[in-house]
Amino acid sequence: MTRFSRASSNPSPETNPAPPRLKSDEGPAMRIIVPLQGVVQGRGGLVLGSLLPCALFYFLQLYLKSRNRPSQSPPSSPPTTLSTPDDHHASPSSPPSASGSTIHRTLSRGLLSPRSHPNVSSRAAAVARPDEDSLYYVGYKKCLRDPFHRVDNPEGIIQLGLAENRLSQDLILDWLEKNAYGALLGGDKPGELNIMGLTTYLPFDGSDNFKNAVAGFMGQVLQESVLFDPSQIVLTSGATPAMEILSFCLADPGNAFLVPSPYYPGWDRDIKWRTGVELVPVPCRSTDNFNISIPALERAYTQAKKRGLKIRAVLIANPTNPTGHVLSRDTLIDLLDFVTEKNIHLISDEVFAGSIHGESKFVSVAEVLESEGIDKTRVHIVYGLSKDLPLPGFRVGVIHSYNETVIAASAKLARFSSVSAPTQQLLTVMLSDKQFISNYLEANRQRMRRMYLLFVDALKQVGIECANSEAGFYCWADMSRYITSYSEKGEKKLWEKLLTVAKVNVTPGLSCHCIEPGWFRCCFTTLTEEDIPLVVERMKRVTQGPK
Amino acid sequence: MVVKVYKPCVPLSAIATSSTHGEDSPYFAGWRAYDEDPYDATTNPSGVIQMGLAENQVSFDLFEKYLEEHQEVSKLVNDIGGFRENALFQDYHGLNSFRKAMASFMEEIRGGKVKFDSNRIVLTAGATAANELLTFIIANPGDALLVPTPYYPGFGRDLRWRTGVNIIPVNCNSSNKFQITKQALEEAYAKAEKANLQVKGLLMTNPSNPLGTAMTRPVLEEILNFISSKNMHLISDEIYSGSVFSSEEFISIAEILEERGYADAQRVHIVYSLSKDLGLPGFRVGAIYSYNDAVVTTARRMSSFTLVSSQTQKMLSPMLSDVNFTKNYIKTNRGRLKRRYDYVVEKLRECGIECLHGNAGLFCWMNLKPLLEEATTDGELKLWETILKDLKLDISPGSSCHCTEPGWFRVCFANMSIETLDVALSRFTSFMEKRRKT
């Protein structure tokens, strides 16, 4: 049953027409414990399943209390629903709607009797829990409300938790300025507008032209070591739906994927929410350089089988997130052998394939397949344009599969998540500009390398070592020496300190299902060189401050 | 080292291998026939004319004109600078300006009779996604939605495929012009109860696809009372609201709710899209408007799977906020659709074919009962095949729309030029003439 706050007893039409606060402080206990169990890697058994959530519950109670105190204001907009990224500097209590909505809030009183409003589904209830209770989202939201800006808000929170690449945006903008108008609206003759192709229905899984362009781009990213067949790709509005659609195709509700951890926190939401598919983390260790261990996969597979859990796939990211590794050819072959033997799928999320800043050459699983003669129908690649090209708002994701049934089903499912026609048109032209793409990829690589080295060095200055990364937007930083207790509780305390004292938002390893406390994921691609000394200063507040 | 072990083909999910996508039905078979042999005035004059696709091409020149006259707007495609602040990839709130623009446009369509709060709008990549999302939110696998017949063939897929939710039809027939009655609602509900299915909501399309009619006030009131009494949700799919021939004839559920002081509004959710009214299906712009806060929050988060391109939002925002443009567009579009509709109905009547009296949409609901050899679904499909193979016209058989009365067909008229429409109509005329002679 959803709860709404009590509206005032005599609402007038002029009352601020804000929707009732959804965040209720009543009985948060179960609402926090249950999702936190998910944060604590799900099936941790009785000890992990009860003690840790209790500890976390107390921590979060404290945290929520301290957060609620300053922003206590009568029925005004809950930031979760109403603050928008456009309103960076709007305070959380500002009226939500300038147009003067006349929706009377009296109706919320009618909701207090149990039978007076219909429930949402259990799927929805899980999603609607306040703040999604994951530190990943908590930090993200806090940052939205108090974002760092060199001029306007120098004391704001520096966002190092969001994988955005601003290092080479200027190159994209430049191209767009010169070419976008023509690409999008230009007809065959100068001065002519041609929008007919934009307006009609396109195939839901992407137009042929756009598929060709994307396949070509993917090949270019891999320096032509693989030729991707456009008929084996399905385009979706982002890698997020691509992953979900693939999950719907490969597993039934109640099945599971094995996922080497630490892994991208978003998968917990993207894959589990609506599909009913479970994720079983398979921990990798720092002593092993966080490399994937086949024996660990074997153990996890056997354990899952004992529990009656059917494993349908192994899910990897390559390059990995958060550790930023490029998987070796041998590892890929071992993985392929493993999934072949178990007759399950392999999903390789390669969204960072074009963001290699280290020396190693990236090898896509597609390349290994070509040369090793393995059954291809069990291998699927997820890709997208949000990382390698800084165009996340454009929403372009890719499913690449050699499995006809998967492609056929995904193409139909893509109707729920299609790429917008003007975006397809614009990007077809951009991706076909091979020279620009080549220049961009190289320039971006160099800028990333430079910033990575600067950032790693900066962290070193405050005594924080990073694991060796070669790709992606993150450093995987070991801050375990700064946590008071070598435990999840200790890590959370440190994360909280970083957020509130250093005012830096980083992603705690626990959100990534890392079993070793103290690791943090820090994104360095939103910074400029001038920011680096500031980051050092901020970090010192914690590393040199009182414990 | 490659381990070569002979194993059966790697298994896929039930969803991947099921046929709930429904694309084996005649509705889609007709599209395939068109794809294989499409009509073209010069290169393929005897090809199949597509009358099974509800697309609006009568007014895209207005859109083009707008872009020509507002070059600075079209240059916005270059402006991803704004997305610097907004490049957050989990920006499921959508651009503030765009949500406001959508709210404004939706208000214009309803002649300013209702107000929409832009904060209650959740953007999705098309109405298809919006309907599926709402189904995920209000129903669990195994639950049921009531849907009045005849209904859009795509619902079978959009509402059921991934959600695992069932559809219980609320049967309507020509005895009262296919209007939804209380009795039909109760019957459907009882049927669900008997089958031990929990009914979580009613999904209606207003104006109706495929009927092409706007729902009347008494029917809307009846429906609101019904869903309140049964404590269920109501989804009002109003994607054709801008295609009602005259604005006085469309009553949105929002109007009724406002009149009732928003009592019980928590149950109601409206679906909208720019695909039909603005003729921009390729842009993939849909919206959920919900009076229920939990649904808004949940829908927003779930919309991560179906976001609208920020470039598209930026491009359309100024145009949709431009009241001069939208007022004129809506009026002109309505006028052109009405003229086409009247023209088609008249021409069909001249050769002896009657249509349901409609006042909305991109199609007419054609009565071919007199032509059936037998008044059954088989008879209807036989006739459909004849029309497809002999007349080379792809029209949608009522059975694809789950109509319980055989002999009705949906015929789209807004997705082609007037010249092509004339060719299609002449084929009907010759067909009827031939029949009269034999």
Automatic annotation (TrEMBL), chain A:
Biased composition (Polar residues): 1-13
Residues of the Aminotransferase class I/classII large domain: 158-538
PANTHER family linked: AMINOTRANSFERASE ACS10-RELATED (PTHR43795:SF85), BIFUNCTIONAL ASPARTATE AMINOTRANSFERASE AND GLUTAMATE/ASPARTATE-PREPHENATE AMINOTRANSFERASE-RELATED (PTHR43795)
Species in which this protein is naturally found: Rhynchospora pubera
Database matches in Gene3D superfamilies: Aspartate Aminotransferase, domain 1 (3.90.1150.10), Type I PLP-dependent aspartate aminotransferase-like (Major domain) (3.40.640.10)
SUPFAM superfamilies, A to Z: PLP-dependent transferases
InterPro entries in alphabetical order: Aminotransferase_I/II_large (IPR004839), Ethylene_sulfur-biosynth (IPR050478), PyrdxlP-dep_Trfase (IPR015424), PyrdxlP-dep_Trfase_major (IPR015421), PyrdxlP-dep_Trfase_small (IPR015422)
Record keywords: Pyridoxal phosphate
Cofactor requirement: pyridoxal 5'-phosphate
GO biological process: amino acid metabolic process
Molecular function, one GO term: pyridoxal phosphate binding
Keyword Zinc-finger listed: no
Protein name: 1-aminocyclopropane-1-carboxylate synthase
Disordered, as annotated region: 1-26, 68-103
Top-level taxon in the UniProt lineage: Eukaryota
Keyword Iron: no
TrEMBL record, chain B:
Keywords: Pyridoxal phosphate
Gene Ontology biological-process entries: amino acid metabolic process
Cofactor: pyridoxal 5'-phosphate
InterPro entries: Aminotransferase_I/II_large (IPR004839), Ethylene_sulfur-biosynth (IPR050478), NHTrfase_class1_PyrdxlP-BS (IPR004838), PyrdxlP-dep_Trfase (IPR015424), PyrdxlP-dep_Trfase_major (IPR015421), PyrdxlP-dep_Trfase_small (IPR015422)
Keyword check for Membrane: no
SUPFAM superfamilies xrefs: PLP-dependent transferases (SSF53383)
Domain Aminotransferase class I/classII large: 49-428
Keyword Aminoacyl-tRNA synthetase: no
Gene Ontology molecular-function annotations: pyridoxal phosphate binding; transaminase activity
Family statement drawn from the similarity comment of this UniProt entry: Belongs to the class-I pyridoxal-phosphate-dependent aminotransferase family.
PANTHER family xref list: AMINOTRANSFERASE CLASS I_CLASSII DOMAIN-CONTAINING PROTEIN (PTHR43795:SF39), BIFUNCTIONAL ASPARTATE AMINOTRANSFERASE AND GLUTAMATE/ASPARTATE-PREPHENATE AMINOTRANSFERASE-RELATED (PTHR43795)
Designated name of the protein: 1-aminocyclopropane-1-carboxylate synthase
Organism, as annotated: Rhynchospora pubera
Lineage of origin: Eukaryota, Viridiplantae, Streptophyta, Embryophyta, Tracheophyta
